[in-house]
Write a structure and sequence with these properties.
globular, alpha/beta, 28% helix, Rossmann fold, binds adenosine monophosphate, 5 helices, two-stranded antiparallel ribbon, seven-stranded mixed beta sheet
Length: 172
């Protein structure tokens, strides 16, 4: 299936100048959703890791499905105040706005290998914040992975420390 063609482009959402990539048409199509997860799984197949760590909300959709499909554990990263146990936290800049993310401090054991995964790579700020939380508790980031990479934004250059994996690259 043409997954690229199924991603709906919404101009000027959530604010002027942002070309929003809406993945809900992929999610609602069983074949397309499966293909998206299978593509990510095949790109990560050669890596040795235990956990997938993803930020809410769209990261959960792909991260949890991928973790199930690959037989890995899943760790949620949430906005401040949402997780019930003691957390590590970090603040970062979005393509649009500022955000604080938290992760349970016992979510990852020191030395445990993880993949940090989100739906879209724009500036790389969100996944850097997720990777930072992993590193705060002693985890090892084996890769940062995305369903969609926005190739017209220099996100990859901001992630030089990491092995960057993406399934679909968009040029506009
Ligand atoms: P960034 O931190 O700049 O890499 O932005 C990535 C995060 O923001 C991901 O969680 C995306 O869901 C969301 N995001 C940023 N830009 C877009 C976009 N143009 N279309 C869809 N989601 C986006």
């Amino acid at each position: 299936m043409d997954l690229k063609g199924m991603i709906r482009i919404i101009p000027d959402f959530p604010k002027p100048g942002i070309s929003f990539k809406d993945i809900t048409p992929v999610l609602k199509d069983p074949c397309a959703f499966k293909q998206a997860i299978d593509m990510l799984a095949s790109r990560l197949a050669g890596l040795d890791f235990d956990l997938i760590v993803s930020p809410e909300a769209r990261g959960f959709t792909f991260g949890a499905a991928l973790a199930y499909s690959m037989g890995k554990g899943f760790v949620p990263v949430r906005k401040a105040g949402k997780l019930p146990f003691e957390c590590v936290r970090g603040t970062y800049k979005l393509e649009y706005g500022v955000n604080t993310l938290e992760m349970h401090k016992d979510a990852i054991r020191p030395g445990q290998k993880v993949v940090a995964l989100d739906d879209v790579l724009a500036t790389g700020g969100t996944i850097s914040a997720v990777a930072n939380l992993v590193e705060q508790v002693g985890g090892k980031v084996e890769a940062v992975a995305f369903l969609i990479e926005l190739a017209y934004i220099p996100g990859r250059q901001n992630l030089k420390r990491y092995n960057v994996v993406s399934a679909i690259s968009l040029d506009s």
